[in-house]
Design goal:
The protein is an all-alpha fold. It has 11 helices and no strands. InterPro entries: MetI-like, MetI-like_sf, NtrB.
Length: 299
């Protein structure tokens, strides 16, 4: 207090404030920052907190698989023989020896094509329907019993209807994907529209905004997180359904390939197909999570 000089009543000259008392405080604040920026500590934390847990989980999974295979009297292939079979399988993934003997690459692409078409049609139909149902109460009440009745139905129940209507296996499989993946997009989009505060729509009504302005300036930015959640759930459902649908419809696809390998008693190829389905499903989901985060950033 002795270093302050008061020239006028109510005015304090801060130029004579000494910086000495603040230096120890600054030194104590800088110490943890320097410690956290230590490259060795950051590398160790990354290894033990990020890499080690999943690697440990995978190692335990392979160990359990090996023990189970050794005690199955040769009925279940082990990790080593499955890996060697996968190397041979993927050495020529796009060979073509006729309609019933194609490489694993062609089967994967055929399944992805069916999922893309069915999921795309479901998105083009389900998202606008979700906006309308969420926007207009009359439509919501009208569609509620239909959605409540259709949504719990098992996807494969729709396959005979698809075969009857389209009279072909390929469009019937696409139909099953469409009808199975449309509900999460409708429900989540409608829920997002209903969650918008009424004040926003009241302001739009006072400003006499058109429905297009209300959609582009209020509804779409607010509903985008809900809509992307529905899209992510739908792609998971679509990829799960395609394998079962292709087992029943035949043709070229990962589902039919699994069934064909089962008839050939090639269990190693079935295990490889399980990993392929899981890896592709994981890639699709992570891609949509990244896309949802990118689109909703700042929304």
């Amino acid at each position: 207090m002795s270093s302050l000089s008061i020239k006028k009543p109510g005015m304090i000259n801060t130029s004579k404030l000494t910086a000495a008392p603040s230096e120890p405080h600054a030194a104590t604040m800088d110490a943890p920052a320097e410690q956290s920026e230590n490259p060795a500590a950051k590398y160790t934390g990354f290894v033990f907190e990020t890499l080690f847990p999943p690697l440990l989980g995978l190692g335990l999974f392979i160990l359990a698989w090996s023990i189970l295979a050794q005690n199955s009297d040769g009925r279940l292939p082990g990790p080593v023989s499955t890996w060697l079979s996968a190397q041979e399988l993927f050495s020529d993934p796009f060979y073509d020896n006729g309609p019933n003997d194609k490489g694993i690459g062609w089967n994967i692409l055929s399944s992805l094509q069916r999922v893309g078409i069915g999921f795309g049609l479901a998105a083009l139909t389900g998202i606008p329907l979700g906006f309308l149902i969420g926007r207009f109460r009359f439509l919501a009440r009208m569609s509620a019993p239909i959605i409540g009745l259709m949504r719990p139905i098992s996807p494969l129940v729709w396959l005979p209807i698809g075969l009857l209507v389209f009279n072909a296996a390929h469009p019937a499989a696409i139909w099953v994907i469409f009808i199975s993946s449309i509900w999460p997009m409708i429900i989540n989009t409608a829920m997002g529209v209903r969650s918008i505060p009424a004040d926003y729509l009241n302001v739009a009504r006072v400003l006499n905004l058109s429905e297009w302005k209300v959609f582009t300036k209020i509804l779409f930015p607010a509903v985008l997180p809900y809509m992307m959640t529905g899209v992510r759930l739908s792609i998971g459902v679509a990829w799960l359904v395609i394998v079962a649908a292709e087992m029943l419809t035949g043709g070229v696809g990962i589902g039919f390939w699994v069934w064909d390998e089962w008839n050939n008693l090639n269990v190693e190829h079935i295990l490889i197909a399980i990993f392929i389905v899981g890896i592709i499903g994981l890639i699709l989901e992570q891609t949509l999570i990244w896309l949802a985060g990118y689109m909703t950033h700042g929304a």
